[in-house]
Write a structure and sequence with these properties.
The protein is α/β, with parallel strands linked by helices. It folds into 2 domains: 270 residues, ANL, N-terminal domain (Rossmann fold), CATH 3.40.50.12780; 97 residues, ANL, C-terminal domain (GMP Synthetase, Chain A, domain 3), CATH 3.30.300. The protein has 19 helices and 18 strands. The strands form 5 sheets. A 6-stranded mixed β-sheet has the order 4-3-5-6-7-8, sandwiched between helices. A 5-stranded antiparallel β-sheet has the order 9-13-12-11-10. The chain has a 3-stranded mixed β-sheet with strand order 16-17-18, with helices on one face. The protein is globular, with a radius of gyration of 23 Å.
């Protein structure tokens, strides 16, 4: 059994001494396929549960000697592995005690699970934060800016808050001009931290779930906070959002260059942070948002996915039937783990070549391209959609919450609504079905027929622009949605303190009026 203290010291030394550019360039000279094959053999040797998992399926680990054989290995899932074996046997050497931190998943797809991690796993994930804060100019160097990082994720056993705070501290210890404050999702404490601490820094970074960050910005404005005084930047995780949403929040927060002032992380309790947005990926996504035909041609959907870049030597992606599979080291090593998010992967050069085929693309300007590619290290792209079970079917067309979101993020409407809504198909008394959207109003905003009409028209317009299935499948007389406006915090549709769901399925055999 390896010396845990020695391996931890080695990992710390490597993290502090190895430049980010070296870390993110390794994939050019080290085979990612060989790397995951080595991780497989280590797991088959050192992880009791995985040994048993393979044996029960008649697999001899010694016979897996090339990448093709690796790709034929059975997928790990929550059902066949995570819930089938106790936690300690899923850890290396069967020792849970080798992991000094434990997080819990949200349980949004079932019973919550515990996910352990050691410092070595956190250091690996810290590189994702390092890449983002480097693009924010917090890294050592001539352009370094003193930075206040405000952790707005919930603190406790949930993975986001503690993991983020820990990784940010590692960056500070590496020489990043970074100070961390952890008010969590307590808005009063966030405002106190910002108003009292932010004036002492050159920039302030708000880190949290997208809807909560927007709420912090909007409520702060109502309380007289001048966000533009603090050179605000934002890091998000946890939800897909539109580029209209990003532009709106940047405008309200005084962030003038969205591609360089924001970044979204692809993070899970299972695997840590798997990828992150870069200025290049954001610029490309904003182009796809302006060019729905290009987005449909590339992603095959009438909705815009989150588009990120990833290090295949940290988290290795495969695609299984349109969903993502990941391999990576963690407290519970993951080997071909079916993370089940809808999405895909695109090699770096393939992405750039595909984008260049479209007129008006951002890569047509060589100066702009050189600037965007300066720090992206030719990393491959991964994209992911919101979960498929959040769609509704209407006349055979899949209607996505992302389509509705864009309709609510148009000028004027954003002054009325919080951004939360519930999408559903309701069956009327005559047995005809109608697309229905229930929308939450901002505090102190009243409902009116005029507002309902403006919102319904905006949603209709964006559905026609973004969703070709809706345009071609739904008869014209059924395309205009019905809209209901409810007060903020309505207990039926928008209760406080619970995770919001953007869709509701009709009750089987029931008429919903």
């Amino acid at each position: 059994m390896p010396d845990l203290a020695q391996s931890t010291q080695t990992a710390l030394q490597t993290f502090f001494e190895r430049p980010l550019a070296t870390t993110l360039s390794r994939h050019r000279t080290i085979s990612a396929e060989a790397h995951v094959l080595a991780l497989f053999h280590a797991a088959a040797t050192e992880v009791p549960a995985y040994r048993d998992f393979l044996q029960k399926q008649g697999i001899d680990a010694a016979g897996i000697q090339d990448f093709a054989a690796f790709q034929a290995l059975p997928l790990m899932t929550k059902a066949n592995y995570m819930r089938a074996y106790p936690l300690p046997p899923r850890c290396r050497h069967g020792r849970l005690a080798e992991c000094e931190m434990v997080a819990v998943s949200s349980g949004s797809t079932g019973t919550p699970l515990f996910w352990p991690r050691a410092l070595t796993h956190e250091l690996d994930v810290a590189a994702r934060f390092e890449q983002v804060f480097s693009s924010f100019h917090a890294a050592p160097g001539n352009t370094q800016r003193s930075t206040l990082a405000v952790i707005c994720f919930a603190l406790g056993t949930w993975v986001g808050g503690m993991y983020t705070a820990t990784c940010c501290r590692y960056l500070a210890q590496k020489g990043y001009a970074l100070s961390v404050v952890t008010p969590g999702n307590n808005k009063a404490e966030i405002y106190r931290a910002v108003t009292e601490l932010a004036p002492h820094f050159e920039q302030t970074v708000l880190i949290g779930y997208p809807p909560f960050i927007k709420d912090v910005i909007d409520t702060g404005i109502a309380q007289g906070i001048a966000w533009s005084d603090y050179s605000i930047k934002m890091i998000y995780a946890g939800e897909v959002f539109s580029e209209e949403w990003r532009s709106l929040v940047c405008e309200r927060g005084g962030a003038h260059t969205p591609a360089h002032d924001t970044a979204s992380l692809y993070g899970t309790a299972d695997a840590g942070v798997l990828g992150n947005e870069t200025p290049l990926s954001i610029t490309l996504r904003r182009f796809f948002a302006r060019t729905p035909a290009a987005a449909r041609a590339l992603f095959g959907e009438s909705r815009l996915p989150t588009l990120l870049q990833y290090d295949p030597l940290s988290r290795f992606f495969e695609v299984h039937e349109g969903t993502l599979v990941v391999t990576g080291d963690n407290g519970v090593p993951l080997v071909r783990y079916h993370i089940a998010d809808q999405g895909g992967i695109i090699p770096y050069e393939t992405m750039l070549n595909l984008v260049r085929e479209w007129p008006g693309n951002p890569l047509s300007d060589e100066t702009n391209t050189a600037s965007l590619q300066h720090d992206d290290y030719a990393l491959p792209f991964v994209y992911l959609f919101g979960r498929a079970d959040f769609t509704v079917s209407y006349f055979g067309a899949n209607i996505y919450p992302e389509n509705i979101t864009v309709g609510l993020e148009q000028p004027v409407i954003t002054e009325w609504v919080t951004g939360k809504f519930v999408l559903e198909v309701k069956e009327q008394a005559d047995q005809n079905k109608r697309l229905h959207v229930t929308v939450e109003l901002l505090p102190n905003v009243n409902s009116s027929p005029e507002k309902r009409d403006v919102i319904a028209t905006s949603i209709h317009t964006q559905l026609l622009r973004l969703n070709s299935e809706f345009t071609h499948y739904v008869p014209a007389e059924y395309q205009h949605p019905d809209v209901t406006l409810l007060a903020a915090g309505d207990t039926t549709y928008f209760p406080a303190g619970v995770k919001h769901r953007y869709t509701r399925k009709p009750l089987q055999g029931k008429s919903v009026v």
